[in-house]
């Protein structure tokens, strides 16, 4: 391609603050412990998979999180994740939630179905631009293409401009398509970096409906880094899948086990089970592998590490969160499936994800 590679483009950073789906029932709770340290493990020469074309926000997030790494585009998030799982690349980057849209839960749930470790997280301030073919004016545009999340973030402004929305795979992919097909009546929402990369004009800046628009990305790796054991600055994610027996009491038990020990929660989300979403599928990474299905899910992030005494205590609290790494008793009731432990009549599984505490927000203009 005649355009500069993304790594050659100036990046303006402002620091502001395989699937084996076994459907058979499984014993054992899932226990996934995740950690990592970019300082201990420099990202030079790493390969990082992202979804989209060069110039996508995910690529920028990958480059920011893993400086000097080589970013590799993939068509879909699943392809990017499979590339890490199969060892073709070292890392994958996954956008999981944004301040405007809340959780892209489908992405988060992808994480639960693959045996990968979160080694880092990065928050990116996303500033959307309206791009058009060179010389085209904003008023000449009839429609706009972009990633569904970008379209959702700009819905009011786009309506005001009277532009029809057309979802495509990613923001940079929209720009590429626009240029390839020489579409003079169509714009794309993407970064100014994508405009430079593909030689398009920026006809409007800051198209997001709300000024504070931050997306959180997770960096995934096949390997965990046990050298981080007990180190400060970690954040842990807990995903509790349950079957709703006892109403919401599982939720209360989990929260009280953490809050009674002064453990600071940084995220709390009770997975709603609207019919169209169906169950959440969670991979069991211990014992016999397979997928468990849970109609109710609780997502929690808290500050601290699984090595902290109070965290250990909360996790081990009797009748509350028992995380069992051992294979369950083979004679146990197969109906217990994935979530072999029943605690006072509740059945649930717990996934624990340990990772870096990401406090910084990067800005891309
Ligand atoms: O389409 C892109 O550029 C992506 O990387 C996905 C995305 C879209 C909008 C905000 C953050 C990430």
What's a concise summary of this model?
The protein is of the alpha+beta class and about 375 residues long. It contains nine helices and 20 strands.
Residue fraction in strands: 25-35%
Quaternary assembly: single chain
What is the straight-line distance between the termini? 24 Å
The description of the largest β-sheet is: 8 strands, mixed
Outline the structure in words.
This protein is of the alpha+beta class and 365 residues long. The protein has nine helices and 20 strands. It has helices at 57-65, 77-85, 105-112, 148-153, 155-160, 171-180, 192-198, 249-259, 309-316; strands at 13-15, 47-51, 70-74, 91-98, 102-103, 117-126, 129-132, 143-146, 164-167, 186-190, 201-204, 214-221, 234-242, 265-271, 280-284, 290-294, 296-303, 342-343, 346-356, 361-364. The strands form four sheets. Strands 1, 2, 3, 4, 5, 6, 12 and 20 form an eight-stranded mixed sheet that branches. A hairpin with a 5-residue loop joins β15 and β16. The chain is globular, with a radius of gyration of 22 Å. The model is unreliable at 1-40 and 318-347 (pLDDT under 50). 3-phenylpyruvic acid (PPY) binds at residues 52, 56-58, 95, 126, 147, 149-150, 170-172, 215.
Question: What tags apply to this protein structure?
Answer:
365 residues, 5-stranded mixed beta sheet, 20 strands, globular, disordered N terminus, binds 3-phenylpyruvic acid
